[in-house]
Task: structure prediction
Amino acid sequence: MFRKDDQIYEAEENGEIILFNLKTGKFFGLNHIGSEIWKRLFTMDTRDICHYIQKTYNVDLGIVQRDLEALIRDLMQNGLIHELSLLHNFVLKPAS
Result:
């Protein structure tokens, strides 16, 4: 799963999401399907997102997987999202 960067502002208008990166001053727009994916990136794994999009829009699963990988790569390269690692699930506590 992923997490949204802390410096991202988002707004939704007519089913499409507009993202503003406060660090870079750049705007990004997501179309309807991109917005559906954005909403799920933070709560679902990519396999489940692919199956959701494939079933909802009756699209070939291979195309969905390819396009999702490209979108995630673009979002990461632009500093909009960060991939969560397993280490984020653990809290280190000092030894007693």
